[in-house]
Design goal:
The complex is a heterodimer. In chain A, 80% of the residues lie in helices and 0% in strands. Chain A has 13 helices and no strands. In chain B, β9 (210-214) and β10 form a beta hairpin. The longest helix of chain B has 28 residues, at 242-269. By secondary structure, chain B is an alpha/beta fold. Chain B folds into two domains: 1-83 and 159-245, 3-Layer(aba) Sandwich (Rossmann fold), CATH 3.40.50; 93-158. In chain B, α2 runs parallel beside α4, α3 (114-127) packs across α4 and α4 runs parallel beside α5 (173-188). Chains A and B meet through α9 and α10 of A and β6 and α2 of B.
Chain lengths: 296, 270
């Protein structure tokens, strides 16, 4: 299988001359480039159509006071990033929100992994705690944001707490499943080879649960941003959620959109980072690309 | 040599029961008496699903006997005894580790430094003919190569007892014979006792010094047949000799009833 490809490049195989091989490969690359160009072209077209139609309808048909329009949103963004908001610079507000999200994300993830792996490896503990965890998961946790403001005040800690409860469950269930689904055969093999309980945990259980945990981090970071923003929305002195809440209070629909866009960009950047970390940690996985190649 | 030495492995009246799905008790093996001398190669054959693997898990200490006892070096087995290697039927390699680190995991678990463990692992990879593939991940190898990795992983700990649970059953016939030859070559350099579980009678006779026939479930030992074929053996050629065929006929006569009985039992159940 994949081993044979290493020798295939060394000599002309199947009666292909060097020149012909080059030609075929160049053709394949060209068609690949064409497809990529088409994909990006269509994407740009969709965005242009969407924004253009919005701009036109908001100028001539519907009231831009309620629905805003792309040009107004752009101006608001320029204003925020240029002169700043009425609550300090945009970077300050954004930094607040991101810091809350990241702090809560880290605490929630660590707690989720520790408890998930612990319960995943102990049937007894899992049995004892499962009704509590199910009940806690069923609570509409976003409401807790209001409670945390009463407990921890308008500062950062109440938002971090909201983020933690949202992130924890997303990570916990995946870590739990990952730790439970470890191949018993692999564990037995390690035991025979002389692994202690601790070594089985660190060298087998954690790495095999990593696939599950990493896939939960994508949704978990989304939850982290939502938690931070909802927390700020419920009451704060700084942050993107507070800016959005303030825009709502002053009927500034462009401000709501502008806040939304900034948060979306942050979420996409975080997604990119997590995907990169995932690819690095899971580089041992059979590559999907190899199995999907089409013939030339 | 055989008559003077004490048995390395001994099962005395060993019985193993499991709770059945949906209530009741399933007896996997009952009153098994078996002893294996140091350096001896014993093959255990029996109908599919009769409890051959259970015998191995008793010896390995992975699962204690329900009744009776297992001895390794005259010590009752509780926990995994020293110097045991176990090759499982299915892959047990770690997919996220390279071939080299998979093979080095045994010495690493035993507390050796990373460099020493890798040095040892390299030696064994060379012996199983995989030195060029040390940095590959298991999924990049063919089935036969993965078996070589498993073999190196087992042998690197230099076990005195090797338990093998149908290790080559998933391979195609040609690769299987190649691996059988490899196993004999590598084993001859050690002084390990081997308990080799298989449902393939030809494989059993080609490899072993002694073939043990187990009955249909609940399994116990029905008969034992010595295999007096010369070593070193050519696993492919030896199958064609009249001596081999005579032994085959003998063992098969004993095994046939059990296989038929197991068939009727499963067809009734199914």
């Amino acid at each position: 299988m994949s081993l044979s490809t290493t020798s295939a490049t060394a000599s002309p195989v199947g009666g292909l001359s060097k020149a012909r091989e080059k030609e075929l490969l160049a053709g394949a690359r060209r068609s690949q480039r064409n497809t990529t160009a088409k994909i990006w072209g269509l994407r740009a077209l969709i965005v242009a159509l969407w924004l253009g139609s919005w701009q036109l309808t908001a100028t001539y048909i519907i009231d831009p006071f309620f629905y805003s329009r792309p040009s107004d949103i752009w101006l608001r963004l320029v204003q925020w990033f240029g002169t700043g908001t009425q609550f300090g610079t945009i970077w300050e507000n954004l930094g607040f929100t991101v810091l809350e999200a990241v702090l809560g994300f880290v605490i929630g993830t660590v707690a989720g992994i520790v408890l998930g792996v612990l319960l995943g490896r102990s049937r007894f503990l899992a049995e004892v705690f499962s009704p509590f965890i199910k009940a806690a998961n069923a609570v509409p946790r976003i409401v807790l944001a209001a409670l945390f403001i009463i407990w921890f005040g308008f500062g950062m800690s109440s938002k971090v707490a909201t983020v933690v409860v949202l992130v924890f469950f997303a990570v916990f269930f995946n870590a739990f499943t990952g730790a439970r689904e470890v191949d018993g055969n692999v564990v037995n093999n390690a035991r025979i080879l002389g692994a202690s309980k601790r070594r089985i945990l660190t060298s087998i259980v954690l790495p095999s649960a990593t696939t599950w945990i990493l896939s939960s981090l994508h949704t978990a970071f989304g939850f982290a941003l939502i938690g931070a923003i909802v927390g700020e929305y419920a009451g704060a002195k700084k942050g993107m959620g507070m800016l959005i809440a303030n825009a709502q209070g002053t009927f500034d629909s462009a401000g709501i959109y502008a806040g939304m866009i900034i948060v979306t960009v942050v979420a996409l950047l975080a997604e990119l980072l997590i995907t990169q970390a995932e690819n690095k940690l899971l580089k041992w996985r059979p590559s999907q690309a190899a199995t999907h190649t089409t013939g030339i | 040599m055989l008559q003077a030495t004490k048995p390395l492995i001994e099962l005395r009246d060993a019985t193993k029961r499991f709770p059945k799905n949906g209530g009741g008790i399933h007896t996997a093996i009952r009153n098994v008496n078996l002893s294996v001398a140091p350096g001896e190669f014993v093959a255990v054959v029996g109908p599919t699903g009769c409890g051959k693997s259970t015998t191995l898990s008793l010896i390995s200490g992975l699962a204690p006997a329900s009744e009776g006892q297992t001895f390794v070096r005259d010590q009752v087995v509780s926990g995994i005894p020293q110097g045991v290697g176990y090759m499982f039927q299915t892959d047990a390699t770690l997919p996220w580790q390279s071939v080299l680190d998979n093979v080095a995991s045994g010495p690493r678990y035993q507390g050796e430094s990373k460099d020493d463990a890798r040095e040892k692992a390299r030696g064994w990879l060379k012996r199983v003919g995989l030195e060029r593939f040390e940095s590959y991940y298991p999924h990049q190898l063919s089935g036969g190569m993965r078996k070589r990795v498993a073999l190196a992983q087992t042998l690197v700990n230099e076990p005195e007892i090797m338990l093998m649970d149908e290790p080559f059953s998933a391979l195609d016939v040609q690769t299987r014979q190649l691996m059988q030859a490899e196993l004999l070559r590598l084993w001859s350099g050690t002084n390990a006792a081997v308990v080799f579980v298989t449902h393939d009678l030809e494989e059993a006779i080609a490899l072993a010094d002694r073939v043990v026939v187990m009955t249909a479930s609940p399994a116990t030992i029905k008969a034992e047949f010595p295999v007096n074929l010369e070593r070193p053996r050519d696993v492919e050629e030896v199958r064609l000799t009249p001596e081999f065929l005579a032994i085959y006929r003998n063992v098969w006569n004993s095994l046939r009833e059990e296989v038929e009985q197991a068939r009727t039992a499963t067809s009734l159940a199914g």
